[in-house]
Amino acid sequence: MRLDLPETPLKPSDRRTLLLKSAGLLAASTVPAWLNPAWAQGTRLQPTPSQTEGPFYPERLPADFDFDLLRNGNARYTAGQAAWVEGVVTDTRGTPVAGAEVEIWQCDQDGHYHHPRDGDKADPAFQGFGRVVVGKDGSYRFRTLRPAKYSGRTPHIHVKVRLDKTDLLTTQLYVAGDPGNARDGIWRRLGEQGQAAVTVPFVPDSDGLRARFPIVVQA
Q1: Which of helix, strand or coil describes residue 171?
Q2: Residue 110 pairs with which residues in a beta bridge?
Q3: In terms of Cα–Cα distance, which of 202, 172, 193, 200 is closest to 184?
Q4: Which of 10, 102, 198, 205 is most buried when burial is the number of CB atoms within 10 A of its CB?
Q5: Dist CA 90 CA 138 (whole Å)
Q6: CA 148 to centroid of chain Cα atoms
Q7: The whole model's pTM is what?
Q8: What are the residues whose beta carbons fall under 8 Å from the beta carbon of 143, sequence distance 6 or more?
Q9: Domain-embedded: residue 186
Q10: Total structural domains within the chain
Q11: Is residue 205, in this structure, part of any structural domain at all?
């Protein structure tokens, strides 16, 4: 970038001011695109599609509702496949939504929720519900179970995002390649674009499986 300086001599204070302004312009013109892809491309991200909350959101929160759903108090849950579910919460401009709360809830490996409507059949070692608050970078992380199927549905995890007690999004997360997806009416109604936004691979990692689920909200 060319910077044209005036031909007449400048006072030291004026020259310093001009150089500082020029440095600011140079820095602004060289911000790498990966810092904020949506901003760099002049586009807006598509919000993550919303879906039904379903009938099993907790009537009251459990005593333990941290990020680790495989540990309920002192009890450990060992059935199924352990997995990390993680991602970043942003708005449609790609800006992290600092301070947002992310909640997840799901059935245990035998298909039971911690909920009276499910007969309280869920394994007590499985926490079943978790909540985290994202930091300045918008990131969240849960230790949980690769979702298991239950009667009439493909495997999924329920997800809710709040900010300042306002619900921003309620949706569901699905497992890429699961044969139950194509038979699931709620998943099919999303259409191809919506399905791609909420269906992610659970890939092997050093300590189980890992799924990366970016969440885009209207904030």
Answers
A1: strand
A2: none
A3: 172
A4: 102
A5: 7
A6: 19
A7: 0.81
A8: 67, 68, 69, 70, 71, 82, 83, 84
A9: yes
A10: 1
A11: yes
